[in-house]
Amino acid sequence: MVTYDPSIEDSQYGFSYEYGVDIEIAGAWQAIRRITGVDPQVTPVTVEAATYDDLGSPNSPKIGENWTLGFQVQQQRLASGSFTEEVEALLALAEPDAVGELAFGRFRWYDKPADGTPNPDHAFEGEGTVQITRAQTGNAEIGSWTVSITGRGRRKKIANPFTGWVEETVPTP
User: Fold this and answer.
1) At 67, which helix (H) or strand (E)?
2) DSSP per-residue codes, 89-106
3) Which of these, 26, 78, 120, 129, is most buried using a 10 Å CB contact count?
């Protein structure tokens, strides 16, 4: 028998905004700033492996996975008229001429706490194609895009790359 103790010593709540996403641009990682609604999802790829020994029950081992990464990102227009470097890179991956290998970007997503130590085991990396659509279409709203990344192959578990906040930008919960 197990006795249930609901207390957790030395813990703090994790918050939905404590997640980071980066895009690789010209061989260097760039954080996707002004991001919200980060939603990584993984679906197992299975095959049917049932035999008579399973007595009619399913037997579908995982042989791979499909992954997606969704989020919204604000429009931030620079003095040049362009958007931030990371948004321009996302838009380029969704351009009409971005076909074949030109349509794939490299991304990583990870635990990024507002305070304290990031989970060293909660960080992933993968390649995927980008779908990007306007998120705000009202008469007086902050512009943003909805981004959906569809993975190619398995995502890879990586060491958490988050090393902390630049001192001037530490969020205040």
Assistant:
1) strand 62-74
2) HHHHHTSTT--GGGGEEE
3) 129
| Residue 145 half-sphere exposure toward CB, CA atoms < 13 A | 19
Beta bridge partners of 77: 83
- What single letter denotes the amino acid at residue 153? G
Which structure tokens are listed for 27?
């061989």
How many residues belong to the chain?
173
Q: Which residues of 136-153 are buried (b: 16+ CB within 10 A; e: fewer)?
A: eeeeeeeebbebbbebee
Query: Which residues fall within 8 angstroms of residue 116, CB to CB, at 6 or more apart?
Result: 12
Instruction: Give the pLDDT confidence score for residue 116 in this predicted structure.
Output: 87
What is the mean pLDDT, run by run of 10 residues, along the chain of 173 residues? Answer: 84 90 98 97 95 94 96 96 97 97 98 93 97 92 96 97 79 57
Q: Which long-range contacts (CB under 8 A, 24 or more apart) does 116-120 make?
A: 116/12, 118/160, 118/162, 119/160, 120/159, 120/160
| Single-letter residue type at 51 | T
The pTM assigned to this predicted structure is: 0.88
